[in-house]
Amino acid sequence: MSSKSRVLALLSAGLASLALGTMGVGSAFADSKTLHIEMTDDCDPATFNAVIGKGTCVGNGDTTFGAFIAEVQATHRAEDWVFDPSRATVRRKQTVVADNVGGETHSFTCVTVFGGGIVDALNQASGNTKLATACGNQTLADSFGASLVLAGGSKAFDLSKAEQASPGVFQFQCLIHPWMRSVLRVGRD
Ligand SMILES: [Cu+2]
């Protein structure tokens, strides 16, 4: 296999596993007990769907698949693929809601150590050669399945039940695009 087709095969394998995950969607609350984190991207549906498969991108972004890969290889990230905010102060009993406002599926996965996710080609391209460590002794595959958020969907997380990466600090990342990250720090109530 050429290195390009190998990259695409790995990407397809990673994305095919999306279908096997738990498609849980929590409800989004608008009260102050909730912190919303937006998951964004800029996928161009024509090229992403042509390369990875139909339904990969349901948005209306304009970053082509080729430009996306080139950007990740050059800078280890794609600047429009982010968790916003990437840093926030939370309260101990606060609920965090991840809102996927992008065109692709993302995961909002609790990790104790940031690192590579489940798509090896993107791990390599983004320089995340060491895998992330999921919270709660979960495997990456299990935690990925439980933390998927489809395009247009939302998922709520109860921080009181999430493992802290260090005292007072929660870390979340996307296991498809491992540079999409948020660090949540518990402030004084
Ligand atoms: Cu993602």
Structure description:
- The structure is a single chain.
- The chain has 189 residues and is α+β, with helices and mostly antiparallel strands.
- The protein has a single domain (3-186), classed as Immunoglobulin-like, CATH 2.60.40.420.
- The chain contains five helices and eleven strands, in the order αβααβββββαβαββββ.
- The strands form three sheets. It has a five-stranded mixed sheet.
- The protein is globular and about 45 Å long.
- The termini are far apart.
- Copper (II) ion (CU) binds next to loops.
- Copper (II) ion is lined by residues 106, 174, 176-177, 180.
Topology:
Layout lengths: L2 H14 L17 E7 L4 H8 L12 H11 L6 E3 L2 E4 L4 E6 L5 E2 L1 E5 L6 H6 L7 E2 L5 H7 L1 E2 L4 E5 L10 E5 L7 E6 L3
Parallel strand pairs: 1-4, 3-11
Antiparallel strand pairs: 1-2, 4-9, 5-8, 6-7, 6-10, 10-11
Q: Give the strand order, joined by hyphens, for the main sheet.
A: 3-11-10-6-7
- Give the number of helices: 5
- How far apart the termini lie comes to 56 Å
Strand content: 15-25%
Ligand inventory: copper (II) ion
SSE succession: HEHHEEEEEHEHEEEE
Total individual domains = 1
Shape: globular
Radius of gyration, rounded? 16 Å
Mean of residue pLDDT values: 87
Instruction: Work out the helicity level.
Output: 10-25%
Q: Regions with pLDDT < 50 over 5+ consecutive residues?
A: 16-30
Helix/strand structural class: alpha+beta
The CATH homologous superfamily: Cupredoxins -  blue copper proteins
Based on DSSP secondary structure assignment, what is the total number of beta strands?
11
Give the assembly state of these chains.
single chain
* CATH class label: Mainly Beta
The fold-level CATH name is Immunoglobulin-like
What CATH architecture label applies?
Sandwich
Biggest sheet statistics: 5 strands, mixed
